[in-house]
Structures are given as structure tokens and as C-alpha cells.
């Protein structure tokens, strides 16, 4: 039997990030430009959370909200799920499922090195089905 692969094999490396002091309008623009749904949030160079497209949509649903003046700091989710690059793929995916997480931040020695999203999980699933379970 083959070893369980790690998150590192499937994660997106060098993810785009955003500063906590940036506007939600800028974050939304970055997500659109880079075709991503998750932006790790930095404050003074330190990773402090994650801002998702869903967070922006929620904030936008409130009356009289202006994305041009509201900052990422007011909308991001602190304390995101994090793993190391050598996190076992099965354990990370199981946690994502049980907690309904759409992404995991991948850190090494306290530094952001990647993002593992549900799309990455589906890519891994597809590859594993195609290579390990074919008859």
C-alpha cells in the first residue's frame, strides 16, 4: 500500500495575500483579477486570518455598507485552520469536511507557504482515483 500524500503535493504555492488595512473593494478586485476565493490576511507582516469571497458577500448584504471604505480588518476570519506542508492529505480533508472549511492555510516555521482549497482537494481526489484505484 502506498503512503498517504501530503498537502504540499496539491497546495497552491505562493498565494496572493492582502493587508488587514486594505479596503474590501481592493480585496474583491484582487479576487476577481487572480480568480481566487480566499486571501490570507497579513497585519504588520504576520498572518492573522483569511478573507473569503463569502465574507465579502455577507458584508455586502448589510444595508449601507460601502466596500470602498470598509477594511479587510473588519471582515476577515481570525484563527483560520492551518497545517504544515507535510500534513497528511486524508486528515486535512477530513477536518475540512467536518468543519465545513473551504480552505486551509499551509505554514512552515510560522510563514505562509501555500493554500489548500476544496478545489485542490478535488484535484487530489481525481488524481488518486485515476492512478491508485484504476484496475
- CATH homologous superfamily label: CBS-domain
Strand content: 25-35%
Mean pLDDT: 93
Euclidean distance between termini CA atoms? 15 Å
Please state the overall shape, judged from the principal axes of the Cα atoms: elongated
Helix content: 25-40%
- Strand order within the widest beta sheet: 1-8-7-6
Low-confidence stretches: none
- What is the CATH topology classification name? CBS-domain
**What is the CA-based Rg, rounded?**
16 Å
Q: Figure out the total of helices.
A: 4
Largest sheet: 4 strands, mixed
Task: Specify the CATH architecture.
Answer: Roll
Number of domains: 1
Strand pairing plus helix content: what structural class? alpha/beta
Order of H and E elements: EEHEEHEEHEEH
Annotation, overall tally of beta strands: 8
CATH class, named Alpha Beta
Structure description:
This protein has 135 residues and is α/β, with parallel strands linked by helices. The chain has one domain (7-132): Roll (CBS-domain). Helices cover 33% and strands 25% of the residues. It contains four helices and eight strands. It has helices spanning 24-34, 53-60, 89-99, 118-132; strands spanning 12-13, 18-19, 38-43, 46-52, 77-78, 82-83, 103-108, 111-117. The strands form two sheets. It has a four-stranded mixed beta sheet with strand order 1-8-7-6. α3 links the parallel β6 (82-83) and β7. The protein starts with 11 loop residues before the first strand and ends with a helix. The mean pLDDT is 93.
Amino acid at each position: 500500500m502506498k503512503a498517504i500524500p501530503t498537502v504540499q503535493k496539491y497546495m497552491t504555492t505562493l498565494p496572493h495575500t492582502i493587508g488587514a488595512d486594505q479596503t474590501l473593494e481592493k480585496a474583491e478586485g484582487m479576487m476577481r483579477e487572480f480568480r481566487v476565493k480566499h486571501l490570507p490576511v497579513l497585519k504588520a507582516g504576520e498572518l492573522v486570518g483569511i478573507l473569503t469571497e463569502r465574507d465579502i458577500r455577507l458584508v455586502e448584504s448589510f444595508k449601507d455598507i460601502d466596500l470602498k471604505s470598509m477594511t479587510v480588518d473588519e471582515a476577515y476570519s481570525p484563527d483560520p485552520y492551518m497545517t504544515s506542508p507535510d500534513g497528511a492529505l486524508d486528515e486535512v480533508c477530513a477536518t475540512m469536511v467536518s468543519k465545513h472549511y473551504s480552505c486551509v492555510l499551509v505554514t512552515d516555521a510560522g510563514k505562509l507557504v501555500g493554500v489548500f482549497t476544496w478545489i485542490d482537494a478535488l484535484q487530489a481526489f481525481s488524481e488518486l482515483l485515476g492512478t491508485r484505484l484504476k484496475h
